[in-house]
Predict the 3D structure of the following.
Amino acid sequence: MDTRGDNVTLQLNYGTNDGGRRRDAAMARFRAHRFGQFIHWGLYSIPGGRWDGQDIDFAAEFLPRMAKVPPAEWEALAGQFTAEAFDAEAWADTAAAMGAKYMTITTKHHDGFCLWPSAETDFHIGNTPAGRDVLAELIAAYEARGIDVNFYYSVLDWHHPDWRYQLENDDDEAAFARYLDFAMKQLAELAQRYPSVKAFWFDGTWDESVKKNGEWTWQVERMLKDTIPGVIVNSRLRADDHGARHFDSNGELMGDYESGYERRLPEPWDVSVTARDWEACMTISQASWGYHQGDWAADTIKHPLDVVDMIAHCTSLGGNLLLNFGPRGDGSLQPVEQELAARVGDWLTEFGEAIYGCGHAPGWSPQGWGYFTRNDTDGTIFALVTRLPVSGRVRIQLPNGLGLAGLRSLSVSGEPASMRELAESVVELDVSQCSPGPLGFALTTMRLDNRDALREPNPDVLT
Ligand code: K80
């Protein structure tokens, strides 16, 4: 045991990595992306939230649990997995049109079905009518468009006989040790078979059985990093010696970035999150990750502006947004998701300069109309107006008594009609006469050309 100031620091074998926040090129690349596409595709995409003619108003990937589907019936879905409408190029085109810089795909979800031909189980895509290596096809298509591919992997496995939620006796311990060995081998397979994968996104790690095996989570991280130099691992994989998750018993982040924000974002003023890298993931419908064919999902599809606001929100706090897509069982994309992707892409085409490579703008407090971001390399400050006041007037509170040297609208839709100083360090822009932006009304992103003193690169970013 050593001490840091007044705080007692526990010696941990399986806590945080030495070295703190990663500053290498692979991590800088992930950080600069800011916006990615999540994809949930598996056997659950076939029934799409409906079983025996009944809609189950719950996340579609949980259908085997919610509808109490007999395991043999769920396994039999593999016989219907044809992927007849699967087109990796079409998926990648949609992601590129949306402005996504990376894509994270479910290689295995909780039901245990594997999207690659694993040697460790028969429950995989090679034993379906599809019989193709969709992960290889996706990697080729996405990487051809400059989009990184990452893998989601569920440690929780409803299909494997040795999975345990708790370890109550020696038999459980022995079974779960076999399970962890199986999962480690599967992950080694993935890393060896698809060496260009940039990151692993772990899920299903919250049960007592996993929390008692912090050593295994530490070994997984090591194995992946030994196999793929620079690979990135999310905090959700990790537990420490005492079962602490995400953050070790000393409060230090484990893994490379914090991945606890699921279907929620940090509060806009919670600058504590800027101390680390993080990523939030979000559904397009209210709560389904896998394709859900019911009204429960269709009635709750987000507006493109909701997504744009979240991208700006995350960037303003130095985090990434991972927006989920649920392709249908046959591999086709949902038109409603393609349409949303196109609209978000319209906005990013025009305003991406204020998102990609940008992060938190220290000292620039969030305001009711939207967010400030800062280019991590050259220090340029951006004001992203995602919630235009009814007055058409945007008040910008400048930090620390700074004056505003000038403004340049990134929008093709026109310059602000007027800019006046309301008080010291408060300027007001009248944008009511600006013509509609790409989302159908005046949505203006301003670049604030401030004094050179403000043009300081983010010290956390190496280029
Ligand atoms: C698992 C368990 C709960 C309670 C909520 C969500 C999840 C999974 N994590 C998301 C990223 C999806 O994969 C979802 O199935």
Observations:
- Confidence is low (pLDDT under 50) at residues 451-463.
- Residues 170-193 form the longest helix (24 residues).
